[in-house]
Write a structure and sequence with these properties.
Length: about 525
């Protein structure tokens, strides 16, 4: 029986009012058995692919009577319940109350799983006629389970106005946990500046694919984007432009904290990057004393690289680095601080090694773990440092070997090969935005590689995870970010999350195609790659 929507919503609220007054009526079934128009999406047809799926049993239907039950009134589980309710209410039109009252029906979010295989981020989702239960060992696992539940519901659930159901979730059990702990996306807010709201929008998109790290490239030749109290001209002057000469901008400390809090609410850790000793024209333009010749260069709004360097022999350089790292470390609760180190073509090798040694020591002094681009392995990575590999097929054997040797000595690696994961590479010759220095990167190329075997000679347990960087020389707003990130970002997210055994382009492209209506419902401006069998929309 398909109820008329208005009646259905009214009936739902009446039930809620009735239930509120009667103890023990927790199991209000909602009264409607939605029409079996379409079978629910098969369990497991999500991105990233889940680790284990056991399909079977009756589907669960979200109805006007559904409650979201949080098993304890711990603020965090309740907050995840409210987050889920906020996702589902606009499109379903249902009240979906979040309650700490126990019951065997509804959508149940439960902490306290004792299954050690779930780890800190894993979850189990059990769906049957009476309930959907998500259990996890920690809140991050519950949150990822909620993203899975969201993807198991029809794409229309993402819309912000009331849609027709039914809102069914296939029956069965899905047990899921990530392959890699570090699943990252980078946003370059330096070449073009992006507002706090634009960053939040991207964070929401990353969360849907279980990305847990946001790397913010906060400084480069074209703009310094974070307020530093002890060196105020960095942001005020160094942040006052961007590629093409636009007005640029910067995050105040309170803006930055707002981004961090929003990221944390989506279980993402922010890794801030101050790129040094190259990529520093915005800083050099702001303070003459940072230049070896004592002369500040003009601000830069072009797209060349490799022409700027902090002055490694000068003492003031390390006062500057200490102040910047101290203030940034104090603002950032996350473990990592990225100090760049790439394309330092205007720094001698000797100066580079000396600079990186001092900069790494400063990061350690303020309690953070060093991350650097893989050129760090050409200096002396400190114990515990993480190197981010961004080479590509034309990267020479000696450079790869240097990275592999560092890994053998204990340096951990995050892999972001430019001709696979750089989201700013053009898809093909017709792509309007982006660059092509690492070649064209279509969707299959981006997805079809294995982080564990990508770099010869690297021990598999040296790989912390993967990242999809998005450089913004050609990108100015969310629409343009999305055109490049989607649909490649979900593929990199899957490489980070899903077991190697699930890796298969032929089945992935079908699961990805099913994300198309979801992208559309969310207003994501995605590239309809001819490699993916998108349906009609
Ligand atoms: C980089 O693409 N220069 C890290």
């Amino acid at each position: 029986m398909r109820q008329h929507r208005t009646f259905s919503r009214l009936f739902g609220s009446l039930l809620l009012v009735a239930a509120a007054g009667i103890a023990g009526v927790g199991a209000a079934p909602g009264g409607s058995a939605p029409a079996a128009a379409e079978p629910p999406r098969p369990l497991g047809q999500i991105v990233p692919a889940p680790a284990r799926v056991k399909a079977g049993g009756s589907p669960y239907a979200v109805t006007e009577g559904t409650r979201i039950r949080v098993d304890e009134d711990s603020g965090e589980v309740r907050r995840i319940g409210e987050y889920l309710a906020d996702l589902l209410r606009p499109s379903t039109g249902y009240a979906l109350p979040v309650t700490a009252q126990d019951g065997s029906d509804g959508i149940r979010l439960r902490l306290g799983s004792t299954d050690p295989s779930l780890g800190a981020e894993g979850y189990r989702l059990q769906s049957s006629g009476g309930s959907v239960t998500i259990t996890a060992r920690g809140p991050a696992g519950l949150f990822h389970g909620v993203q899975t539940l969201r993807q198991l519901l029809p794409a229309d659930v993402e819309k912000d106005s009331v849609q027709d159901g039914p809102w069914k979730v296939a029956g069965g059990t899905l047990t899921d946990s990530p392959r890699y702990a570090y699943r990252s996306a980078m946003l370059d807010v330096s070449r073009h500046f992006f507002s706090v709201d634009e960053v939040k929008r991207y964070i929401d998109q990353l969360a849907l694919y279980k990305i847990n790290t946001l790397h913010l490239h906060l400084s480069d030749d074209q703009g310094w984007r974070i307020a530093i109290d002890s060196w105020p001209r960095l942001a005020e002057y160094g942040g006052s432009t961007e590629v093409g000469g636009g007005p640029g901008g910067h995050y105040t400390k309170s803006d930055y904290k707002e981004i961090l809090q929003y990221a944390a609410s989506r279980y993402l850790e922010v890794v801030p990057e101050i790129d040094m000793p190259g990529h520093t024209n915005a800083a050099l333009a702001s303070y003459a004393e940072l230049n070896c010749d004592g002369v500040a260069p003009p601000l830069y709004t072009g797209t060349s690289v490799g022409f700027s360097s902090l002055c490694a022999p000068k003492a003031v350089t390390y006062d500057f680095v200490d102040d910047v790292i101290r203030e940034l470390a104090a603002l950032t609760p996350g473990r990592y601080l990225h100090i760049g180190g790439d394309e330092a073509h205007s720094t001698s090798h000797e100066d580079y090694v000396a600079f990186m040694e001092k900069a790494q020591a400063i990061v350690g002094k303020y309690g953070k773990t060093v991350v650097g681009w893989h050129q760090l392995t050409g200096a002396e990575p400190v114990a515990g440092a993480v190197a981010q590999y961004w080479g590509y097929d034309r990267t020479g054997a000696a450079e790869r070997q240097q990275v592999a040797d560092a890994a053998k000595k204990g340096t951990k690696l995050v892999l972001s090969p430019a001709d696979r994961t750089y989201l700013d590479m053009k898809y093909d010759q017709n792509t309007r935005l982006g660059l092509a220095w690492a070649g064209y990167v279509e969707v299959q190329r981006s997805y079809d590689w294995d982080p564990a075997t990508y770099l010869a000679g690297v021990p598999a347990d040296s790989v912390l995870g993967v990242e999809a960087p998005l450089w913004s020389e050609t990108l100015t707003n969310s629409e343009e970010i999305e055109q490049m990130a989607f649909p490649r970002l979900p593929g990199v997210a899957e490489l980070g999350w899903s077991p190697a055994a699930t890796h298969d382009w032929e089945s992935y492209k079908v699961r990805l195609a099913a994300q198309g209506p979801r992208f559309s419902a969310l207003g994501i401006n995605y590239y309809r790659s001819p490699q993916v069998p998108w349906g009609a929309e």
